[in-house]
Design brief:
This protein is mainly beta. It has two helices and eleven strands, in the order αβαββββββββββ. An eight-stranded antiparallel beta barrel has the order 1-3-4-5-6-7-8-11. The two termini are about 25 Å apart.
């Protein structure tokens, strides 16, 4: 994968001497909503019988995305990397002890991006974009129980999954300086494929809901709202 990305970048760079008008680097950050339906159902299935509270259940959280773009007139294309994460916690604590069940999930995304400017006036530009790619998800489940100052359980399991995605969206960009622009983007991330979580290092051992006996996959689909700072390097 790394070799393919390097070759692609070199090919793009070589082509810019003849065809491109500018090369830009960008950094986006914002908030994403994440469905995580399977993992939410897992929380319901493994909820302890004693008095516990679902403190957080895969809420919206930050994502971060650096990118490299080449622009040819009104069309831009390139590569990006995205990190996104969320999680849940079931917990209980009193004088006798403490219980926690944490699920932390994140994904490293490698994607392509293509954008087209539809409207440009003065320093303001409106464009549409499409980002397809691959999402490498990691899930860590930790169950912790301490009772009367004695640790009875502290077990961590890690799972991985590979899925595909496509994110269409719109972006409004304002040119602050000749080489620097700031954009506001809104998109929807569609997860594709049915690759389930498997135990790290054991692809045949799948994460399963004990109530339904169904396998569990990531659920990254949701809204992406962010801001992008772009710098034209050439």
């Amino acid at each position: 994968m790394k070799r393919i990305v390097v070759i692609f970048l070199l090919s793009l760079a070589a082509g810019t001497y003849t065809f491109s008008q500018q090369i830009s680097i960008g950094f986006s950050s914002g908030v994403g909503t994440y469905a995580m339906d399977d993992l939410k159902s897992l929380n319901e299935a493994v909820h302890p019988v004693f008095d516990t509270k679902l403190v957080t259940d895969f809420p919206p959280y930050w994502f971060y995305q650096p990118s490299l773009l080449i622009k040819l007139h009104k069309v831009a294309f390139g590569l990006n990397y995205t990190f996104q994460s969320t999680g849940s916690r079931i917990s209980a604590k009193d004088y006798s002890g403490e219980y926690r069940l944490d699920m932390k999930v994140h994904s490293n995304n490698l994607g392509l991006v293509a954008a087209v400017d539809l409207l440009e006036e003065n320093n303001l530009r409106f464009s549409v974009y499409l980002e397809p790619g691959m999402a490498f998800s990691d899930l860590k489940i930790n169950e912790y129980l301490i009772l009367l100052d004695t640790e009875l359980e502290n077990e961590t399991m890690r799972f991985k999954a590979l899925n595909y995605y496509v994110e269409p969206g719109i972006e409004f960009t304002y040119t602050l300086f000749p080489e620097i622009s700031l954009g506001l983007n809104l998109g929807y991330y569609f997860q594709a494929g049915k690759r389930d979580f498997h135990l790290d290092g054991e692809k045949d051992i799948l994460l399963t809901n004990p109530s339904t006996r169904e396998t569990i996959k990531p659920g990254w689909s949701g809204i992406r709202l962010g801001m992008t700072l772009t710098y034209d390097i050439l």
